[in-house]
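REVIEWER CHECKLIST
Item 1: Sequence provided? yes
Item 2: Single chain? yes
Item 3: Sequence as submitted:
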Amino acid sequence: MTQGYFLVVSYSVMDRIIEEVSSLNIGYRMGQKRISMVCYADDAAIFAETEDDLQKQLHRFYQVSQAMNMTVSTEKTKSITFAKDPVRCKLVVQDKIIEQVSQFKYLGMDLSSHHDPAKDLRSQINKATAMSGCLRQTIWANEYMRWDSKVKIYKTCIRPIMTYRIETREETHKTKSMLRVAEMKTLRTIMGKTRRDRIKNTDIREQCEVQDIVRWGRQRKRGWYAHVRRMDERRLPRIALEGKPTGKREPGRPPKRWKDSWQSTSQELLQRTHQN
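Item 4: Structure as written out by the authors:
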């Protein structure tokens, strides 16, 4: 797979900069199209396949910002490369070198040169477990509160933390097991049961009327897939969903794809039949 470069820039206001940067026709190729820049709130992420291309985009970004009396925060700006082997990426803006990092937190997730979905999920589970621990005495152990009310609190406060970004995250056997273990720990606490009671997980879920968290996440993925498929073909989510990175795949077992997390072989064949 072609190595990619990624740059995160924080700034005050953004409007026409996206069009100016995209007009360079530089970015990360996804089939016949390119993704050069994506934005969320006051953050922007710039993509390129080479260091020179990323420097050109950053320079154009800075020029347009200056023309519109906008400021680029070089202290908050970071660069990161995604490649099998470490790659240097020296970027300069305002005569200052942009710090290159191997990992940083962006929009609630840990971005790293070597992506590890289990590590990212473990951080979310730790946060959910800490929240559940704060509710143990006041909510879970409250004898005067109905169990279905406790389950609603779990679905509202705990499960969203564990399943943050589950619609777009690839799942492996390890991450599925981690989610199920974390969920059952909370549900058993709600029902006042422990593993010593030798009650099956399926029985606990039936008593709580809670769907398996992995199946629940699979439904969310299917809903997100249908939502993106209804978008215009020029929208970035649609391009990222249907596009395929250029280059050759490294030897060995291929990485887990997002579609593999919720789509079986029979479903994929059925989908291709409908598309044809």
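Item 5: Key structural point noted by reviewer: The CA atoms of residues 135 and 141 lie 8 Å apart.
Item 6: Recommendation: ____
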